[in-house]
Amino acid sequence: MPCGPKEYAGASNTLDAAGRRSPGTPFPHESSTRMTSLPIALGSRRAVTDAPLITPLVERWSPRAYDPGADVDPEVVRTILEAARWAPSASNTQPWRFIVARRGSRAFATVHAALNGRNREWADSAALLIVNVAEAVGPDGLPRRWATYDLGQAVAHLTVQAQHEGLHTHQMGGFDAARIHDAFDLDARLEVISITAIGVLGDADTLSEPLREREAAPRRRMPLDELVLSGE
Ligand SMILES: Cc1cc2nc3c(=O)[nH]c(=O)nc-3n(C[C@H](O)[C@H](O)[C@H](O)COP(=O)(O)O)c2cc1C
Fold first, then answer.
1. What's the Cα-to-Cα distance from 198 to each of 39, 79, 163, 221, rounded to whole Å?
2. Rounded to whole angstroms, how far apart are CA atoms 1 and 85?
3. Chain segment 81-96, per-residue pLDDT in tens
4. Is 172 in the pocket of ligand 1 (CB under 6 A)?
5. In terms of CB atoms within 10 Å, which end of the chain has fewer, N or C?
6. Where do the DSSP E strands lie in 77-176?
7. How many angstroms separate the alpha carbon of residue 56 from the centre of ligand 1?
8. How many CA atoms lie within 13 A of 185 on its CB side?
9. Who wins on pLDDT, 44 or 70?
10. What are phi and psi of 69, to 5 degrees?
């Protein structure tokens, strides 16, 4: 099945024309009661932001329900990896490496088997599992202090580009990194950091109840003024 930008039925971002949240508008978690017996309104997954953001950032969230019949076009895979490639990095060292595993491949089965129980339960329907690897020690044998920072930034680029391509992403830290390191016979200088599930959004009703509950849980963020330690 081809993938394209998703339309969000019932999307209701409570922003005004300038992209600001109207005063007094409750955040979704403030107004929601018990959501588990109701269909998940995808519009409610959009970020309710206090400042206007570009669309892929507003629409990005981390679903667990993916369409098990949808593949990602190889050109689109190339595009999202290209977005990672153009991330900035310390001294332009570009310490990000990726294992790209398509659903149905042996690599996918290997990566999937290394996930912890809950992640294994939902991630099998993703079209791709991408293992995010940092070259934490350079070819000169010196540790790269910012390797994981740079990798994270490259993955952020990838997720935003994926969202722009009509896909969704879900990053995971819950897996056995040593198992993946061994299975892919990775060099000792490489550190397996995270895994990103990527695919076309699926039907949350196909999930088990505990996962479905998480899927519908309110999206929360700390207030901006708690994040800025000093801002004169
Ligand atoms: C490094 C990292 C590790 C994560 N590990 C997991 C995980 O193992 N399982 C999971 O379901 N979600 C995982 N997440 C997803 C986060 O829980 C999610 O991004 C966060 O709750 C915010 O939700 P949102 O992405 O929908 O905005 C991880 C995210 C990151 C960035």
1. 22, 13, 10, 23
2. 27
3. 999 999 999 999 999 9
4. yes
5. C
6. 96-102, 128-135, 168-172
7. 17
8. 0
9. 70
10. -100, -5
